Write a sequence for this structure.
């Protein structure tokens, strides 16, 4: 198995002493409780209050500043000591924020992940065993009655929808600047954005180049959302939508003189056989000068291992909530389906944004 150095260092040899391993096992066993305590330490401002104090705060001082009861604070503070997000001075009884607590509070990716896991994933993970055995998103019923989450995105409860899109946009938006440089180095005039979602990348494209026209291919509900989102923005008239159920193997992509085809965090929404079907249909509308750009976060190609952790856990969301059969892929698995589809990878761009890779793909 090919792994970047950060993953190889972590995943190929034992890292912990027996005592450390035992504690990690208990940390996992109590993981749901630790998560909820830590989430409330952020939500109710306890960590922020500790961060902003100079020498830390006592229980009574925190009670005055947070308006939480003494009982609630004792529960949260004592659990947080064990979780490692705060520290205590034994001589003064002052609580202070730890390094882990600081990242929990201040790291943008962590904040997005907290909301995503609480609002989108938490209840549905109870049905993970069923999802794994049946290959269906058994936990999705906690959010609504749809075959996959994609049919229901436009109908999700407001808070769930906000957390879902914040998660999706956070990881893609940080990659757009470099991605635009790569895509527009070849001066495309006609670009197809497959799985274009709310049109954020399409808007960046028409802003970046006044001569490009963009066609977004997505589910009908998403095209409706996209149309509302881009309305009134500069260049929006050069963006059109093409409602298509890409999961239907009989649905064809629109024909056109495509210079570029863009798929960002799209193929990870499908199983390997579905990816093969989509790429095969994509090849049918490509010509020799067309470049297909596939931007994905491959868990094996991360500079820092915590990113791999986030990605392999995101795979579990796909299993239990999203569709029951897709994941965040190892890059070798994606390249295998590209080759099967009559295509070939001609260039690889790593370390884009929050750990993305762009594969440049051509017809064989």
């Amino acid at each position: 198995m090919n792994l970047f150095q950060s993953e190889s260092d972590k995943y190929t040899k034992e890292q912990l002493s027996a005592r450390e391993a035992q504690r990690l096992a208990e940390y996992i066993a109590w993981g749901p409780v630790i998560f909820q305590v830590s989430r409330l330490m952020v939500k109710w401002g306890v960590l922020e209050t500790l961060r902003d104090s100079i020498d830390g705060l006592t229980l009574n001082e925190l009670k005055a500043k947070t308006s939480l009861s003494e009982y609630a604070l004792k529960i949260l503070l004592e659990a947080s000591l064990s979780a490692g997000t705060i520290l205590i001075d034994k001589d003064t009884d002052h609580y202070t924020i730890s390094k882990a607590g600081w990242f929990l509070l201040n790291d943008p990716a962590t904040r997005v992940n907290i909301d995503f896991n609480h609002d989108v994933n938490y209840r549905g993970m109870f049905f993970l065993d069923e999802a794994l055995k049946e290959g269906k998103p058994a936990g999705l019923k906690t959010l609504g009655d749809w075959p996959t989450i994609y049919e229901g995105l436009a109908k999700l409860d407001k808070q769930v929808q906000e957390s879902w899109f914040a998660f999706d946009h956070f990881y893609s938006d940080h990659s757009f600047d470099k991605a635009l440089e790569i895509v527009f180095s070849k001066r495309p005039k006609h670009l197809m954005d497959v799985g274009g979602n709310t049109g954020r990348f399409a808007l960046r494209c028409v802003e970046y180049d006044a001569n490009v026209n963009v066609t977004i291919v997505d589910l009908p509900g998403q095209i409706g959302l996209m149309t509302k989102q881009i309305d009134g923005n500069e260049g929006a008239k050069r963006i059109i939508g093409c409602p298509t159920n890409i999961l239907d193997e009989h649905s064809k992509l629109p024909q056109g003189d495509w210079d570029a085809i863009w798929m960002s965090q799209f193929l990870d929404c499908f199983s390997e056989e579905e990816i093969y079907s989509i790429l095969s249909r994509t090849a049918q509308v490509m010509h020799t000068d067309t470049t297909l750009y596939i931007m994905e976060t491959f868990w094996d190609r991360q500079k820092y291992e915590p990113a791999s952790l986030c990605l392999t856990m995101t795979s579990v969301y796909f299993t239990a909530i999203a569709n029951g059969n897709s994941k965040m892929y190892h890059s070798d698995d994606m390249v295998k389906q590209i080759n099967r589809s009559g295509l070939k990878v001609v260039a690889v761009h790593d370390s884009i944004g929050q750990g993305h890779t762009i594969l440049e793909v051509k017809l064989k």
In short: The CA atoms of residues 85 and 100 lie 5 Å apart. The chain has two domains: 5-106, 166-363. The mean pLDDT is 96.
